[in-house]
Amino acid sequence: MSLWTLRCRTPTSPTWALLRLPRLRRFSSFAGLLHEGKLAPEPEFHKSGQELPVLRLVGEDGCLVNGAELPCSLDAYLDMYKCMVKVAVVDSVLNSLQRQGRISFYMTGTGEEAAQVGTAAQLGRRDVIWAQYRELGTYLHRGFSIQQVVDQCLSRCDEPGKGRQMPVHYCDASIGMQAISSPLGTQIPQAVGAGYAFRTASEPRIAVTFFGEGAASEGDCAVALNFAATLRSQTLFICRNNGWAISTPASEQYAGDGIAARGIAFGIPSIRIDGNDLAAVYLATAESRKLCLEGQPVLMELMTYRRGHHSTSDDAGRYRDSGQVKRMARQGLEPISRAKLLLKEASDWDDEKDADLREEYRLEVMDALKLAEAKPLAAVRNMFEDVWAKPTPELQRQRQELIEHIERHPEHYAEKLSKYKDGKAGL
């Protein structure tokens, strides 16, 4: 079998190590009958192979492990750190606003900031991304503004989704971010199709899809991996294994060696990374993207931890040990504090600068909130537009029924409609 090599540093090797995985090839389903494959005179049952290593460059003490090198400049590392802090501040403020009733719903990515930002920092500007719903850092790093985040969460008139989606379901085609979908797994095969199109058109860009280990249990994920492998789609699969699929722990989701092992079974180069190590995520994404551009789909499994609730509609305290959450939040294990330890050791970054940065972002979120609350809600007509080039008779009938209903009961809708763009005329 031909082999390809992926260069990576491991905790036990100070130099480049070789993670040897099978190259994508066409296996004949009749290999045994044609005596081309390995034959066995007795029944052999294979449960699992060798456990995959975890790529880590920076330890919990903020120091590079065993002589490893930082894969970027300190300035670039600081920029990524600042973006991680921005994610944490936005999450904290908007989550609090939801508890106050000013936002209908919210989902944080607390504890997963490195997985979001470290990947985004190595993707090309023309790469197209299908995110799930904990990729706020990916959006922010690619240029999505805090104002756009707040506008979307409040369904304001000028947000790209036109007020038709629930909060945290962002979209912005101008920065290569496709619309987030609530149903799990739907984005995974979509990214495979795009990656296949990029390969057949010889375009030097890739399609990227993010998903959690819970979504990996959906049939769409298995289908997507198989399509990508056989079609040599230029697709990068990024699985954030944060330990929890709402209330289901990872220990009850699979019996094998996690998610990365599935990629190998499908013939896809796969790697497991410490998802709380910003440097490791950054390096692995760079190497994975190179392979994708060569027509090799890649699966990255980022080992991290969901420190918050699944969403504001969830109470994780009912099914999760609070002690476990505290252990996973300790300094050096969670991603932001680990990156901060490295910066404090290797540069002039200190607690005062850190506090100033957090306050700057907090004020930016509050200013964005004031602007958003002064804007009208998206026009009511948006619910009938954009799906069809020409509205169907059924859509036209439904829209007319709504207009007639409002006209019959003006006392119930006059004040409400005034909050929407163009008011009644916005129908």
Automatic annotation (TrEMBL):
<comment type="function">
    <text>The branched-chain alpha-keto dehydrogenase complex catalyzes the overall conversion of alpha-keto acids to acyl-CoA and CO(2). It contains multiple copies of three enzymatic components: branched-chain alpha-keto acid decarboxylase (E1), lipoamide acyltransferase (E2) and lipoamide dehydrogenase (E3).</text>
</comment>
<dbReference type="InterPro" id="IPR001017">
    <property type="entry name" value="DH_E1"/>
</dbReference>
<keyword id="KW-0786">Thiamine pyrophosphate</keyword>
<dbReference type="GO" id="GO:0003863">
    <property type="term" value="F:branched-chain 2-oxo acid dehydrogenase activity"/>
</dbReference>
<comment type="similarity">
    <text>Belongs to the BCKDHA family.</text>
</comment>
<feature type="domain" description="Dehydrogenase E1 component">
    <location>
        <begin position="81"/>
        <end position="378"/>
    </location>
</feature>
<dbReference type="InterPro" id="IPR029061">
    <property type="entry name" value="THDP-binding"/>
</dbReference>
<dbReference type="Pfam" id="PF00676">
    <property type="entry name" value="E1_dh"/>
</dbReference>
<dbReference type="InterPro" id="IPR050771">
    <property type="entry name" value="Alpha-ketoacid_DH_E1_comp"/>
</dbReference>
<dbReference type="GO" id="GO:0009083">
    <property type="term" value="P:branched-chain amino acid catabolic process"/>
</dbReference>
<protein>
    <recommendedName>
        <fullName>2-oxoisovalerate dehydrogenase subunit alpha</fullName>
        <ecNumber>1.2.4.4</ecNumber>
    </recommendedName>
</protein>
<keyword id="KW-0560">Oxidoreductase</keyword>
